[in-house]
Amino acid sequence: MRIVMIGSGYVGLVSGACFADFGHHVTCVDKDANKIARLRAGGIPIYEPGLDGLVARNVAAGNLAFTTELSEAVSAADVVFIAVGTPSRRGDGHADLSFVHDAAREIAGALSGFTVIVTKSTVPVGTGDEVERIIHECNPAAEFAVASNPEFLREGAAIEDFKRPDRVVIGIEDERARAPLEEVYRPLSLNKAPIVFTRRRTSELIKYAANAFLAMKITYINEMADLCEQVGADVQEVARGIGLDNRIGGKFLHAGPGYGGSCFPKDTLALMKTAQDHDAPLRLIEATVAVNEQRKRAMGRKVLAAIEGPVRGRAVALLGLTFKPNTDDMRDAPSIAIIQTLQDAGAKVRAYDPEGMEAAKTVLSDVEYASSAYAAADGAAATVIVTEWDAFRALDLTRLGAAMADPLLVDLRNIYRPAQAEAAGLRYVGIGRPGKS
Ligand code: NAD
């Protein structure tokens, strides 16, 4: 199949490279000329484990190409995926669909022969109808079908998720889209991935319903952690005790500083707005959004409360800035609000992140960047673990404590056992655990 991916970001680049690896001919398009130049020169604009090798292999095999010129690629394509960003619209939280609509207009002018156009971006219910309308309006003679195929990959494990998904969801309104999309995903049948065909609006909603549910699950255990701190229970054991029930499941039950990233915050907000607009408000999601929003600053206050004496002018070390490990993505990372809260109290923030510091520099100000966890901790009033990178899982706690002015470890990911930290001479504060919380 000849596939075009419009948008070569986290989703477009990973999906494009994986489709190429399946043997399809893929052209990844992006309007960001720097990104395309870097890809053409053999570089990878994002950090995603394994992506460099996958891209290099498929470029060398002639299955994967990069361009800023959409027209030529689209006119030769069987299937065109739209994988552009759908950020929150400024002001009201609805999904900003301007990139999707622009892409639809550009695609419309380039279509030649029957083509399936697929929204892979996360888009609100009804966007497929609008994409169809735009293309028809721009090019009334075009032969096309518009399908929905939301992406469920997780950054940090994106290639594995794409190649071995729990399911592939495809929403179609026009039967002519079915066979080409079956062909696109046929290699996955070897991996026994269920392909769920449904209607387009249902498919669009499945993506939001999944993300909102996961965000709600995280928020549920986070609130349970707060209760644990008040009543002397251990949230780790509560999570294990409920997660072993198959109806609940143990995943996404790790208490922490609140969810962040490029998807959950904007998708929960967009779903909430869609539901309100259709007079079917989703109260659980509204509560999830509100609880998570206030939690991030509350984590900053938790650090401040744990520090003995005045905070103003003292250094606080942050380990991990990205919203989760194995990515350089800083979009809506909890570290942003935590740092703001610490800075508001007059603390000097010194941070270390294995991959995220370049991206962090574009969203954070007045932060000093360190070359290692120990360098960050040097002379600090507290060290705070914000992101559970592997590099922070086996720190020499004695060395860490010795480097600090006050040996206080605030572990917002519960990586360490309190007794282990205390044995190394640290004062330990975790999330939702008995004793000092
Ligand atoms: P991203 O910002 O990393 O990439 C989007 C790319 O699209 C950018 O490089 C941008 O330059 C390009 N672009 C925008 N308009 C274009 C146009 N008209 N023509 C060509 N290129 C254009 O975004 P992302 O993280 O890959 O997310 C893309 C979509 O996938 C979003 O809707 C997101 O919600 C969804 N999604 C993301 C993830 C994730 O983990 N990042 C997972 C599942 C779904």
TrEMBL record:
Q: What is one process in the GO biological process aspect for this record?
A: UDP-glucuronate biosynthetic process
Instruction: Describe which pathway this protein belongs to, using the record's wording.
Output: Nucleotide-sugar biosynthesis; UDP-alpha-D-glucuronate biosynthesis; UDP-alpha-D-glucuronate from UDP-alpha-D-glucose: step 1/1
Query: Does the entry feature the keyword Oxidoreductase, yes or no?
Result: yes
Q: What class of enzyme is it?
A: oxidoreductase
Q: Which residues form the active site?
A: 263
| Catalytic activity, reaction form | UDP-alpha-D-glucose + 2 NAD(+) + H2O = UDP-alpha-D-glucuronate + 2 NADH + 3 H(+)
SMART domains given in the database record = UDPG_MGDP_dh_C
Record-linked PROSITE patterns: PROKAR_LIPOPROTEIN
| Listed InterPro entries | 6-PGluconate_DH-like_C_sf (IPR008927), NAD(P)-bd_dom_sf (IPR036291), UDP-Glc/GDP-Man (IPR017476), UDP-Glc/GDP-Man_DH_C (IPR014027), UDP-Glc/GDP-Man_DH_C_sf (IPR036220), UDP-Glc/GDP-Man_DH_dimer (IPR014026), UDP-Glc/GDP-Man_DH_N (IPR001732), UDPglc_DH_bac (IPR028357)
| Positions contributing to substrate binding | 152-155, 207, 252-256, 260, 324
The EC number on file is 1.1.1.22
User: Which parts of the sequence bind NAD(+)?
Assistant: 30, 35, 86, 122, 155, 266, 331
Which keywords annotate this record?
A: NAD, Oxidoreductase
Where in the numbering of this chain does the UDP-glucose/GDP-mannose dehydrogenase C-terminal domain appear? 317-418
Q: Which domain of life is it from?
A: Bacteria
Q: Which GO terms describe its molecular function?
A: NAD binding; UDP-glucose 6-dehydrogenase activity
Q: Which NCBIfam families match?
A: NDP-sugDHase
State the family it belongs to. Belongs to the UDP-glucose/GDP-mannose dehydrogenase family.
Its name, as the record gives it, is UDP-glucose 6-dehydrogenase
Its lineage opens with: Bacteria, Pseudomonadati, Pseudomonadota, Alphaproteobacteria, Sphingomonadales
